[in-house]
Design brief:
The complex is a heterodimer. By secondary structure, chain A is α+β, with helices and mostly antiparallel strands. Chain A has 16 helices and 20 strands. The longest helix of chain A is centred in the last third of the chain and has 19 residues. The chains are: A alpha+beta, B alpha+beta.
Chain lengths: ~475, ~775
């Protein structure tokens, strides 16, 4: 087993022994490497000032993704390339096209958020998407700027994408690939220091064995939640089992009737597949966190984390998703609706872990809608989230699944609402019955995200919105959704 | 040359490369300790026992200090006393600092700070403005401004309305949190790096807390990662704690607040409760108005006096209030002491009158812009503010007319009406709101600045002044002024960190005055040096000094031309000093603070904005579809920098009025203390169609090079967003009722306002808003 973490920092090989196994990438960069261009703005993955790029070999090419260094653990760098803002300029000092554009467009004021924006935009430019306003907004949703109001940064994004200069990050690609291959870990990483463990198994069997050996271990997938336990709650987890290196656990497979998503598949990897079948689900995922968060965070983590405001569960519940759990060699399957026992409590047995999520493909005629309500559109946590899977046959509701978040101690299906509409004509009377069932089903609480009164009113209104968008006597030509930013 | 040119921020390239250094990026001295603060868990309690044994015993801890360890005075109050550095016997807000710890690592310090055993003896806590008003609990005496006979005028008026508007506060959310590093020097001196808008005040406070004379304390700041008023006086507490720990440990100490601690510990924009009664005629002209402005000050006076004064001075915004009474209560609550924030009370005062105008318009069924027009300041006698200052050459009628034209305001209002007829579930609204903002510190003595300029013998310039850089581009603007004066290219002027050791007794960089004051002081120093150099050139070439000209990097004396660097060397050979200070004080201020009458402002900055929004009737969500901004920068020193201030101010103001909600729980703890829960605007919140222009028309601009201050005024352009949302809400009831909408207009408040209208709530309105 390897006890040191080997990776590329820029083009330089690093091998580090971590005295603190859950030390963050940000702390490592700023303290050990004295690379202070990467900033801490919040230490919880919400401001993007610490954005760095992680490079991995994928299909014979380097794939770079932006992540938040503040909540990423240095131990997860094993076998990867880490790029910070100091790596962007060419060897002769020529700034990266994004850096040039940021200066030319007057896109920095205090400058503290700027390196993070530069890194997010470097990844955006590299990905090669068309720089529409919507695409730029999405690429930058995880970067907060308090000074500029974003207009010049948006212009810089467009200018950088229009700059014909070749991307310097591709200049050394083949050499980087070779280097990465050379230092690719051949054994599992196991850091043991002062009684603390960081274990990164490489196979499902090994993972299953470790989960049984250390049933109390913290399981680390994307780390967008576990990271906060370290940076905010100041915890030093005694034992971490990192899932990111487990081969095949991130697999996404489609069959004729299902999509199976491995527990460690990131949102960024899962979203395109899901969106192809459920566009509203895709949009819901797009509004989870930010690019940086979705590049790390996993659908499996969202499920197992069992937060009442986890955003994917309403959709997964409405669609009757099923979970495949493993303990040792024993595998069981159960519906997501049966997974939660209470507030942040699941039915996972000691040593058992989530292996895969099985999502049915849309049934013929099925309509899927998802709605997320939050104070801010992007990178916010839901006040209320609702998802509906509706099938109409000859004007009657022949299938109806409803999942809600933010209204109870766990994400919840709403059987009473389902019962109120199933088999009935999809009309105002049925909608009223569904509304009454809604009121009877939920007594939401007040907190800093919304009052119970708002959650109740808005949640019930989402049933009307569904109705307007799907019923024969719905809104007709009148719009039901506010405009997205223009291209 | 460089003046009035859209040059990049001096640090732009270093921002983008990551080379720009903030305090946490400076090389750490050997033996550096890291500090953390222990915070109160209760809003109001006697400290029965503070047991710090576990803190002191925690890993890595070197020193723990409480109020008892303060050698000087335990107070870091700025404009007024009352802000203990560390709470001694009683805590007055949840999050107040009780003790501080220094340890070998940041993590050690923060973890240790959570191990205190504090026994609280709870006392009754007032948590809201309403609580404070009911208890007559104030941090400072109330004030009243009266012009004319408001009571009688309201009573006589054909129409009368009254109502209430609640405005939330706002966290600064500077991306760089509060930070300071204190380094003990030989002889008991202290060097302090502080992320502060006010290095002089930091030195004063450290002097007060440590009982050290000012000349043994040096305070320096190269740049801040944002400030917005939040580092005007609050930086002192951070620096003082670092200094206190450095004093006791004789080791350098850095205190960098965690984001959550920062948001809980430090003050914010004042929330306000506004009650109003207004009398008006059929055209909407205000005949009399009575305002009660109740500012949410928190537990101490801090800067609340001048903040609430400024709210009173801006309750007229751009409108002549012939008969007005403005009563200001400075409410004391057991919450964090609120502080300076871009606009400094002005935005809250302006919201009061804009709300009144909007109410009048809805009551009469007239276009709010038409009602604004009949109320704008005009010619004498309709040009006197409630505090007795004359409004000269008011550009608002012409400025708003131009904006109405360029934004197609009237046509779009008709289009919106048509859209709203066809769309029951999505409604649109539009509003045009003006801004008139007084420039100068209302505390007259703060309107002064100093600078220090050296010319080196190679012809390069060293520039120092009292202004601090927080991103607003002050340093490049002042450098442009100096380069222009010497007729040198900008790169010949070196911009330096702001230090109390270079320029003493400075004012805060605040009140939008940074470039007016410091630019003028630096220019004065440059003029002094030029005069000395001109005399040398005149003597050398035998021409009168008046015929010496500085142009294009050279100096012409009659028919002779000499390089600027050559002349510098000549001066040195002739033993002429090439270093000079400059000083400036704003002329013409004549203000009697006791009577609140006179001319507290040098001039006014103006602007106006049109915003159009779309709201979702079922969820309360909204988008800003378009915003047109027209702002008066006078003759901008740097249009690129100023545009950044206009745009950034607008978006920040829109955040204040829409998604940025401070939420305290019933126990008085702030629960929105991180970006996960406190939502400043993100990229997609920028209006999808965003148009910004500079006012090119007539304007009274008496300051340096005819430029106008631009730091704060554009924030208030965002009032247009709030009133556009209100317009869209009213559209859900066909404009037949006046919605009750408080700020921030979160989706929740929007939806609940819609629901109240649907349930028959909301005061009556005329039912049409004609263009």
């Amino acid at each position: 087993m390897g006890a040191t973490v080997r990776f590329l920092l820029g083009e330089a090989e690093r091998e580090i022994a971590l005295a603190d196994p859950t030390r963050t990438v940000l702390d490592y960069l700023r303290t050990d490497e004295r690379r202070t261009g990467t900033k801490e703005g919040c230490a919880e993955g919400d401001c993007g000032a610490c954005t760095v790029l992680l490079g991995e070999a994928r299909d014979g090419a380097m794939r770079y993704r932006a992540v938040n260094a503040c909540i990423a653990f240095a131990a997860t760098l094993d076998g990867k390339q880490l790029l910070s803002v100091e790596d962007l300029a060419a060897a002769d000092g020529t700034p990266h096209p994004v850096q040039r554009a940021m200066v030319a467009q007057h896109a920095s004021q205090c400058g503290f958020c700027t390196p993070g924006f530069v890194m997010a935009l470097a990844a955006f430019r590299l990905a090669g998407a068309a720089p529409t306003r919507a695409a730029i907004d999405d690429a930058l949703a995880g970067n907060l700027c308090r000074c500029t109001g974003y207009r010049p940064i948006i212009d810089a994004a467009r200018a950088a994408c229009a700059d014909p200069a070749p991307d310097p990050l591709r200049a050394n690609e083949s050499a980087t690939l070779a280097r990465l291959q050379a230092l690719a870990p051949r054994t599992s990483l196991a850091i043991v220091r002062d009684g603390r463990r960081f274990l990164a198994p490489r196979s499902i069997a090994e993972l299953a064995a470790l989960c049984e050996e250390f049933p109390e271990a913290t399981r680390l997938a994307g780390g967008t939640d576990v990271g906060l336990a370290v940076t905010k709650a100041l915890q030093d987890p005694a034992c971490v089992i990192a899932l990111g290196a487990v081969c095949g656990l991130d697999a996404i497979e489609e069959s004729a009737h299902t999509i199976t998503i491995g527990a460690t598949a990131t949102y960024s990897d899962a979203a395109p597949v899901i969106a192809r079948h459920y566009p509203d689900f895709g949009e819901l995922i797009r509004r989870i966190g930010s690019v940086q968060v979705r590049n790390a965070a996993t659908l499996g983590g969202n499920i197992v984390n069992a937060s009442p405001i986890g955003d994917t569960m309403p959709a997964l519940l409405a669609l009757d998703a099923r979970l495949i759990l493993r303990r040792g060699s024993a595998v069981r399957e159960l519906p997501l609706a049966g997974f939660y026992r209470g507030y942040r409590e699941t039915v996972l047995a000691p040593g058992e872990f989530l292996e895969r999520v099985v999502l049915p493909k849309p049934a013929p005629g099925q309509i899927f809608r998802a709605y997320k309500l939050s104070k801010r559109f992007d990178q916010d946590i839901s006040a209320v989230c609702a998802a509906f899977a509706l099938t109409l046959e000859a004007g009657r509701v022949s299938g109806f699944g409803a999942g809600f978040g933010g209204l109870a101690a766990t994400p919840a299906r709403a059987p009473a609402i389902e019962a109120a509409v199933l088999g009935r004509r999809w009309d105002e009377a049925t909608l009223a019955a569904a509304g009454e069932a809604f009121d009877a089903s939920f007594t939401p609480l007040s907190d800093m995200r919304a009052s119970g009164a708002y959650r109740r009113l808005a949640g019930r209104n989402l049933l009307r919105k569904l109705y307007l968008e799907t019923a024969p006597s719905g809104s007709g030509r009148a719009r039901t959704r506010i405009l997205e930013p223009a291209p | 040359m460089s003046l009035h040119e859209p040059l990049p921020h001096d640090s732009a390239a270093r921002h983008a490369s990551g080379e720009a250094l903030y305090i946490d990026d400076l090389p750490e001295p050997r033996d550096l300790l890291h500090a953390a603060i222990g915070l109160s868990a209760r809003p109001h309690a006697r400290l029965a026992a503070v047991d710090l044994a576990a803190v002191a015993a925690a890993r890595g801890v070197v020193c723990v200090v409480t109020a008892a360890d303060i050698p000087g005075v335990n107070d870091v109050g700025s404009a007024a006393h009352g802000d203990p550095l560390l709470a001694a016997a009683e805590v007055e807000y949840a999050g107040q600092a009780i003790f501080a710890v220094a340890a070998e690592t940041v993590r050690d310090a923060r973890r240790a700070a959570r191990r205190a055993q504090v026994t609280y003896h709870d006392l009754p806590a007032l948590l809201t403005v309403d609580d404070a008003l009911a208890a007559r609990s104030f941090v400072l005496p109330s004030k009243t401004l009266v012009q004319g006979e408001p009571g009688a005028a309201i009573a006589r008026a054909p129409h009368r309305l009254s109502g209430r508007l609640d405005l939330g506060g706002q966290d600064h959310f500077y991306l760089e949190g509060q930070i300071a590093m204190a380094l003990p020097q030989e002889g008991g001196e202290l060097k302090i790096y502080s992320s502060t808008q006010h290095p002089t005040e930091v030195s004063h406070m450290v002097s007060r807390v440590l009982a050290l004379p000012c000349h043994r304390i040096g305070v320096e700041v190269r740049r801040m990662g944002g400030a917005f008023g939040g580092k005007e006086s609050q930086a002192s507490q951070i620096a003082c704690i670092a200094a206190l720990l450095a004093h006791h440990t004789r080791r350098p100490v850095k205190l960098r607040l965690d984001r959550d601690d920062d948001m809980v510990l430090t003050g914010k924009r004042h929330g306000f409760r506004i009650d109003y009664e207004v009398g008006f005629d059929d055209t909407g002209r205000i005949l009399g108005v009575d305002f009660l402005l109740a500012g949410h000050c928190g537990f101490s006076p801090h800067l609340s006096g001048p903040v609430n004064d400024r709210a009173m001075f801006h309750a007229d915004n751009g409108y002549f209030l012939e008969n007005a009474r403005i009563v200001s209560h400075r409410c004391k609550t057991h919450t964090v002491s609120n502080t300076a924030f871009r606009g400094f009370g002005g935005p809250q005062g302006m919201m009061a009158i804009e709300q009144v105008i909007d109410e009048i318009s809805r009551h009469l069924g007239r276009d709010p812009y038409a009602v604004r027009r009949v109320n704008f300041y005009g010619k004498a006698p309709r040009n006197r503010t409630p505090y007795g200052m004359e409004v000269r050459a008011n550009p608002l009628p012409a400025l708003t007319a131009r904006l109405a034209r360029t934004s197609a305001y009237a046509r779009r209002r008709r289009e919106i009406a048509a859209f709203n007829r066809e769309n029951p579930w999505i409604k649109r609204g539009i509003a045009l709101t003006p801004v008139k903002f007084g420039i100068s510190f209302t505390l007259t003595q703060m309107n002064q600045a100093g600078a220090l300029v050296h010319v080196y013998t190679d012809g390069t310039i060293h520039l120092a002044h009292g202004g601090t850089e927080m991103g607003q581009g002050l340093l490049v603007k002042v450098a442009q002024v100096v380069a222009n004066e010497f007729a040198l290219p900008l790169e010949r002027v070196r911009i330096t960190a702001t230090s109390t050791e270079q320029v003493p007794n400075t004012s805060a960089t605040a009140a939008s005055s940074g470039s007016d004051l410091n630019g003028a002081a630096a220019r004065a120093a440059a003029i002094t040096l030029k005069a000395r150099m001109a005399r040398v050139a005149a003597a050398e070439f035998g021409v009168p000094a008046g015929e010496v000209r500085f142009a294009n990097g050279a100096v012409r004396a009659g028919n002779h031309t000499i390089g600027f660097d050559e002349l510098a060397r000549l001066c040195h050979r002739h033993r002429v000093s090439l270093s000079a200070t400059g000083f400036y004080r704003t002329p013409g201020l004549a203000y009697d603070p006791a009577a609140m009458r006179g001319e507290p402002f040098f001039y006014f900055a103006y602007g106006a904005a049109v915003a159009e929004v779309e709201i979702d009737v079922l969820s309360g969500e909204y988008r800003i579809l378009r915003a047109d901004l027209l702002h008066d920068c006078g003759r901008s020193l740097n249009p690129a920098i100023d545009r950044g201030q206009i745009e950034g101010g607008f978006v920040q103001g829109a955040g204040w009025l829409t998604t940025e909600e401070l939420w305290w729980d019933a126990q008085g703890s702030l629960r929105t203390h991180a970006p996960s829960t406190y939502k400043i605007p993100a990229c997609s919140d920028l209006p999808r169609d965003f148009r910004v222009a500079f006012w090119a028309g007539r304007s009274h601009a008496p300051a340096l090079h005819r430029a106008k201050a631009v730091g704060e005024p554009p924030l208030m352009l965002a009032m247009s967003v709030f009133f556009a949302i209100r317009d869209a809400i009213a559209a859900t009831a066909h404009h037949r009722a006046r919605p009750r909408l408080d700020a921030p207009a979160t989706p929740e408040r929007v939806l609940l306002a819609i629901a109240a209208l649907a349930a028959g709530g909301g005061a009556a309105a005329a039912g049409v808003v004609a263009a």
